[in-house]
Specification:
This protein has four helices and two strands. The chain is globular and about 45 Å long. Helix content is 50%, strand content 10%. Helix 1 runs parallel beside helix 3 and helix 2 packs across helix 3. It has 104 residues and is mostly helical. The two termini are 19 Å apart. A two-stranded antiparallel ribbon has the order 1-2.
Length: 104
């Protein structure tokens, strides 16, 4: 199972696009659609900039790992696409470890 276009739109709705890195409410430098770490494992730094195309690449890269973790956590559960998308959105926004530790 992979995140649908509606699920990606949900993530984007809550994250918003920022071409220049900013401090998120948790005080972490963030860019694009909520990226805090680039695919090369380097952390986002204030002053970094990206295009929408780059932000899409970062999001797609992050979704691979998050989807894998959500599937691991929900093994044996019958999930609708909408529920899967909602769990991926939650994990993308707050971290899959927070999803795993939640009562969801």
């Amino acid at each position: 199972m992979v995140t649908s276009h509606l699920g990606i739109d949900l993530i984007k709705h809550f994250e918003s696009f920022f071409a220049e890195a900013y401090l998120c409410p948790a005080g972490v430098p963030t860019i694009g659609w909520g990226t805090i770490e680039y695919p090369n494992k380097k952390s986002v730094k204030l002053g970094d900039k990206c295009t929408r195309e780059e932000a899409e690449t970062y999001l797609a890269h992050e979704l691979v790992g998050i989807q894998t973790e959500v599937l691991r956590m929900t093994e044996g559960c019958k999930l609708t696409q909408a529920r899967f998308d909602a769990l991926v959105s939650f994990a993308y926004n707050l971290g899959w470890n927070r999803l795993e530790g939640s009562s969801l």
